[in-house]
Amino acid sequence: MSAEGLAPAPAVVDTPSQPLALALDLGGTRFRWAIVDAGGRLLRRAEGASEEGITRARLMARLEEVARQILADHGAALAGLGAAVPGPMDPSRGYIYAAPNLPCLDAFDFKRYWEDRLSLPVWAANDADLAALGEQRFGAGKGAQHLVYLTVSTGVGGGFILDGRLYQGAGGPVAEVGHMVIDAQGPPCRCGRLGCLEALASGTAIARMAAEALAQRPGWSPAGREGGISGPVTAEQVATAARSGDDLAVDIFARAARALATAILNLIHLLAPEMIILGGGVTRAPDLLLPTIREQVIAGVLPGFRVPPIVTAALGDNAGLVGAACLVFDHYRGRAGTDSSLR
Amino acid sequence: MSAEGLAPAPAVVDTPSQPLALALDLGGTRFRWAIVDAGGRLLRRAEGASEEGITRARLMARLEEVARQILADHGAALAGLGAAVPGPMDPSRGYIYAAPNLPCLDAFDFKRYWEDRLSLPVWAANDADLAALGEQRFGAGKGAQHLVYLTVSTGVGGGFILDGRLYQGAGGPVAEVGHMVIDAQGPPCRCGRLGCLEALASGTAIARMAAEALAQRPGWSPAGREGGISGPVTAEQVATAARSGDDLAVDIFARAARALATAILNLIHLLAPEMIILGGGVTRAPDLLLPTIREQVIAGVLPGFRVPPIVTAALGDNAGLVGAACLVFDHYRGRAGTDSSLR
Fold first, then answer.
1. Which chain B residue has its CA at the smallest distance from A196's CA?
2. Are A210 and A249 within 8 A, CB to CB?
3. What CATH code would you report for B140-313?
4. Rounded to two decimals, what is the model's pTM?
5. Taking a C-beta distance cutoff of 8 angstroms, is the pair B269, A176 a contact?
6. Chain A residue with Cα closest to B255
7. What is the ipTM of this complex?
């Protein structure tokens, strides 16, 4: 009726069959917002950072400020907010139990908070679970009904797609592959136990093995390392050294790869997935990991089991955002009578 | 029309809503047939044995002979045959890949064979998977939607109920919990790798630890052991010795219990089940295992995860038969429009 000609044309036609989702990937040091379409494409993006010790109020205010930047011309067309959050949570309630890398989120009713702030329906799940979902819908695992996703960065996380759906268990966290004990006489993990996968194959573990190598061979200087051997060695420096043929660095990556292969074999023997997808920073060195992983998996697989393709993630840093948007789309479709990914 | 008065009254009324199943549990040395009703009750039973090196033809003939004993008065009323078979198989085809304890079944089209012989529809699945299903429907896990079943006998096997259904993965075997590596620097397993759960907690592992203890302390004689220390020690003898307070025997069971706890923690952190059910011969010594298992699981569980009840199986030796019958009933219900346990 009023001033129709002046209304801004929407960038994307938003009909009930083509919803848009607001997606949030909330990491330990950075957060990213995006508007995602039903084809998994990111239409608008905005990001921000948090610092150690940030309060919940300050982080929420910063999140909202950045969100408003991309909401200005899309608010009315969004079907909901999907959020990937770090740490164990209860997706059915959108409640975060604990966020080891972002402690201000401990015991936080995330869903209720954002539903009040944005007047949008909100769904949230663990970031690694949602990366698995994103990869299954729009990434390396398109069409797979049974898929294991591992993310190897500072820590090790994971997510499972089982029988076509994001596996959520009986409530609370699942797919904590980083704390699968595979070497009960192995090195201590930050969780207090010995021989978790994370203590053997994460970026932190690679840096620790490098520090141990330095202690054993004091003159060792990984190639590409700036400033000689002072200060802690990073996983990236070990990767550079391994690529230049440094034997200690090659051995460190081989040990990480063997640990990943043991964990992957356990997951194959437990879940018989069609595909294993590796994401996260450490797997940006696939040349140093994948050949050993594949060789060890083939050598160790039990009779009767298939060795599934072991591939790197396709969506990179966007997997969590895309998976978070899928929560919204699935709810939307769920209302139309089909299955939702979260049960 | 003819001699109605002389027809034998059926023992159980078999209407389409109350089907009966013929069930088979085919073990490495014994096999058992039963007729099972939709309430999980065994109405008729018959059993037989096989010897090492038996040929497939001879075993099949013996199976059929015993089956005919209970089929005589029930043949017309049965909805199908459900079979629990040892070793990895493809339940969608009823095909056995390999049966380590019954090699004459290797590469056997079990379903086709029995459909031809009995003129009944046949479903088959792995015995540990079906024990999990039996326990969920009629045993210790009644009503659980997410359940992990472990069977600890000569070897270690398992089965998962996830999202209310027997988990079958992408085809072929699943839930091989016995070959989850939890101690990569541990003792060798018969599968060729090191530190599988089976090498640490099975009856075979307990006997091996006892033999090692004997070698270290030659005069050791587990209480209740007949004939002194000659001949191999059995897990049962170690259990008897542990109950009488023998320190070496107590330590052996404690080591097995700690390995089981590590494996159970891994499964809790991966799958977040509502319940853990322990079956098999070794768990007939729950007093020697469960207290240590529960204590270790509570001590090691990650924040955010619930410790589910850890209980012993309720159906005993009948779990596989009851689970096998469920395959038949589920197919029956599946036709009526509801879900089947096998997808």
1. B182
2. yes
3. 3.30.420.40
4. 0.90
5. yes
6. A184
7. 0.89
